[in-house]
Amino acid sequence: MNNSKISKLDKKMDKIKEKEEKGLLKEKKVNRTLRKFFNNKLAVIGLFILLTITFASIFAPIICRYSPGKINLTEALEPPSRDHIFGTDKLGRDVFSRVLYGGRISILVGFGSGIGSALIGVSIGSYAGYKGGLLDKIFLRISEVLIAFPQIVLVLLLVTILGQSLWNLLFIFILTGWASMYRMARARMLSLREEEYIQALKAFGVSDFVICYKHMLPNAIGPVVINITLSTAMFILEETSLSFLGLGVPLNLPTWGNILYAAQNLSILRNNWWIWLPPGIMISLFVLGLNFVGDGLRDSFDPSYQG
Amino acid sequence: MYAYIIRRILILIPMLLVITFLIYLGIELMPGDAVSFMIGPESAANIPIERLDELRESLGLNDPFIIRYFRWLGGILKGNFGYSLSSGVPISQIVFSRLPATIELAISALLFSTFLGSILGIIGALKKGSILDNVLTVAGMIGLSLPQFFFGLVAIVIFSLNLGWLPAGGRTMPGYEIFLDRLPHLILPTIVLGSSLTGGVMRYARNSMLESLNKDFIKTARSKGLPEWRVNFIHGFRVAMTPVVVLVGFRLPMLVGGTVVIEEIFQWPGMGREFLSAVRGQDLPLIMMIALFTVSAVLIASFLIDILTALIDPRVRLE
Lengths: 307, 319
Prior knowledge:
The complex is a heterodimer of chains A (307) and B (319). With 307 residues, chain A is mainly alpha-helical. Chain A has 14 helices and no strands. The longest helix of chain A has 37 residues. Helix content of chain B is 78%, strand content 0%. Chain B is built from 14 helices and no strands. Classes of the chains: A mainly alpha (307), B mainly alpha (319). Chains A and B meet through helix 6, helix 7, helix 11 and helix 14 of A and helix 1, helix 7, helix 8, helix 9 and helix 11 of B.
């Protein structure tokens, strides 16, 4: 088995050498990480899915013929047709435009909380990890407390205390999500701060802030980006589950979860698949895309992850 | 070893104190106090304010916050968790009547996902790079990406509404008591919850198995001339499974509160559903106590797992 592998590699090398000798192999100027990312088929598929859904949501007003909130009781619960690609819901609203407009809120909440918690977690985590000491200990304990809660329990608890609204939900997600970012950034900084170039910068008397954010943080950017994509996937799943339970974004705003809320009704679940199937598939595709991209990024940033 | 256990306990206790303090703070934030719940607003209007203040004083409600906190904590340690606002039932009674259903679901989903996940993960590791491995990896990703509630809905529509093979919800039918009668009710929630956990276990098992297959003792076993299956399953598997078991151990207490969505969809009468109805009814004491209960379960379980891993692997203690 090993022999065949080696001969395969040999053949590959021979081909590359041949090309090189003929001068066909050009010096590639694209970033090595990016090139690796685009060589990963799944990652490219994921990126394609993400961009398609995101742009369709952004340009929803141009794509859709109907307003997502327009009620038309004469056309209630119509199956998919040429007029309404995904049919209509109980109030005669066009499901297709609701799904596209719903994507706006769901994606906003997902990326908003992903990036928000990364901003807070990484900026505290890198400084605390670099400086260590009491500050680091305090934040470490706080993050341990936050991580001990099952995420959905903590989120629901905060929803009860703060009340239900779009901005509260974003705030709650950031509040509960920064801890894992903090731990990741901190761990990265702990290993970086022993490097020689940091010692050199210190010896030159460069200020702590500059060392930490200008010289160390860029070296931790890979894990941060990976974490943002994966936690965005998690937040989108959470937002849609909460909205599905009727406890997330208020029902007057269409989000993917809110559209699925209708499926709690057994008759709609059984007879009107077009109302709940499209948003469900949309969520699954989007989260799948995020996971593919996150995985692709991980492979291209850090070769040691490749199993 | 004893020093390690004591060090871990010294970390555990302050964390539990901080969490109980936060939870008590949350309960205190609630508008109104015990007196305003004992005496309805109508009768309270007829009682002079001085009498209400006397009652507050005699119940100790005017004591400083920190003293009330420690009194409340003492009550918890004695098993007095307080009462649900909406039903008036003691919270300990609610928790203990709901817990068995959740644990039943959590354990069966964990068993399902552990078996399936480790088998598929090992197959992936042994056939690394093959089409089968790639298909399994993508399938695992899909499992991680499907929202549990959506997967649950699709399963209900297919298997109970259209095919009529399995019940759509509930834990038991009236009059049926033994476990076998309940089994059909358990199948769908187990598969739905289990599948969403399988992707993670699979990836973990695959990486762990790949790592252990690269170790020196595997080469030794192979050079001894042992058959391939023996090398893989007896030598490689044993070492690869330790981290997987630890992962599963961490997941059980997380599931005590983490089954909210599945329990709601399948009308499963467990802690998650109780928590959700408490959230809907703004029953703050019940919400807080269930949260406290789950967090304590997670913390104590991770403490036990740390001790266990330290027993198995002495290197851990030195950290």
